[in-house]
Amino acid sequence: MNHLTVIPVTTAAPYDVVVGHGILDRLRGLLPAGVQRVAIITPESLEDLLEPFADLLEGLDVIVLQVPDGEEAKNWEVAAACWESLGEEGFTRSDAVVTLGGGATTDLGGFVAATWLRGVAVIHIPTTVLGMVDAAVGGKTGINTPAGKNLVGSFHEPAGVLCDLALLATLPRAEVVAGLGEVVKCGFIADPRILELVESTEPSDLTADSPVLRELVERAIRVKADVVAGDLRETGGVDGHPGREVLNYGHTLAHAIERATDYSIRHGEAVALGCVYVAELAARAGGLSPELVARHRTAFGKVGLPTSWDGADFETLLATMRVDKKARGNQLRFVVLEDLARPVVLAGPSEEDLRAAYSALSDRQGS
Ligand code: GLY
What we know:
alpha/beta, 2 domains, 11 strands, binds glycine
């Protein structure tokens, strides 16, 4: 159980994602040579996790920058407070930031690292499934503004990512389940083995020490690593593949649902709903088979995620989708499947299809 899995991310500045149990001692090896100061950016609520770091980073100057929990940290005031602290400590280009937390901490900490001195090294230690399989890999960093989420940011790839599954032991069950939303998404867009694993495992068995959870996390990381290695900056894929945009499968409606619920729904829950929605849309606009549409409901439902929703009227959701930052000009774009693991972009679907797909999502009989 104590073995390490190393997943290389082969972008222009390659790095490794290291996965295992009880592997925080690998942090030292991921730090670039010559680092003298380390700033650990972490939420106040994770203070208990800091204890081993004094030993792990012995001999280095370590400062801890405590930030608010979750999205509350992703604003310019918190970023500015971090910059201020780095300035006071005399942080130079050869020093490093370490993030320890969920996806919001990774986004903020990555952004601070991207902007300080135009970029210092950052190592991510994600503490949630969502952080491991999505936020920590691929170099997207950012903060929110009053105009919307993640509107200010930068691509800044980490020097390494340490996914210690032991950190998931105290994660609330609902957070583990929500993180599986992005994992199941990876099953549909690229790695059907993920779906087989999910379908054949009792969800209560997916605990922090479960080999199946580990395989799911590793497979999802590999999907993301492959995608970002091919299209880091989301400029497009080759041979009809959507490129990095594929990771947005289900996200256009998911973002609209998150906004309609004032972000009270978990991201992974909204992604599950968004994926069911685009499957229904693809059935209408592109002829996706009814079996594959049904498989979306069974796979997301199996891990405990919602597969039907009627919490807002279609017009409200449509208006939000039209301003989604993935829309280009006035045209709505969705990543849809032609078949399992065969994603394509659907641009400008008819309003009739968009509406009918939402009716199918909101029809509880259909779930
Ligand atoms: N979370 C989507 C991406 O990294 O592109």
